[in-house]
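can u do me a favor
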């Protein structure tokens, strides 16, 4: 391909110049589609800490330590929750059929990481929190491993997860589920 383009460029004619411009534009578009840009496929207002800032409860989003992600992602498994991975070979971004129900806080916690929470970390994971029909309620992006607290959902709403970046997985939990798992046994 490169030799073909260079050959066309060497034979300068108006037609070849057009062909080279079209080929280079196509290559640039194809390469641009592969870049981990958080703004691609996500509304700018919905991007949370794609810059890699650490998670803080005040901000409600950011990256977390891989060991913390391991404990949260694999240590908390309520009987009914949304969790899905998007792997090479999947024909399209998968939608998990089992929902997580928003608790009284109106908040859902999205945990996004790489497959099996293994390196390389730091890539942008895009995903959508969807209603039961699969319509996106929020489209978000965060660097892995990361956590986003999504507020202002109606308590009792069932939500599904659709990871949209190949090689990532996302789990939806409620703050109550996380607090119950991290606070230890209750008397």
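np, heres the sequence
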């Amino acid at each position: 391909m490169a030799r073909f383009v260079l050959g066309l460029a060497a034979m300068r004619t108006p037609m070849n110049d057009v062909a080279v411009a079209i080929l280079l534009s196509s290559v640039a578009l194809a390469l641009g589609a592969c870049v981990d840009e958080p703004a691609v496929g996500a509304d700018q207002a919905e991007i949370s800490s794609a810059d890699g800032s650490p998670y803080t409860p005040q901000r409600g989003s950011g990256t977390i330590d891989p060991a913390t992600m391991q404990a949260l992602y694999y240590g908390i498994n309520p009987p009914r929750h949304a969790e899905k991975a998007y792997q090479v070979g999947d024909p399209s971004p998968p939608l998990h059929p089992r929902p997580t129900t928003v608790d009284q806080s109106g908040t859902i916690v999205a945990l996004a990481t790489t497959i099996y929470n293994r390196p390389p970390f730091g890539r942008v994971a895009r995903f959508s929190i969807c209603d039961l029909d699969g319509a996106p309620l929020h489209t978000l992006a965060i660097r892995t491993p990361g956590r986003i607290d999504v507020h202002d959902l109606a308590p009792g709403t069932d939500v599904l997860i659709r990871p949209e970046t190949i090689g990532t997985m996302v789990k939806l939990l409620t703050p109550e589920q996380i607090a119950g798992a991290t606070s230890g046994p209750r008397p």
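The longest strand covers residues 136-143. hope that helps!!
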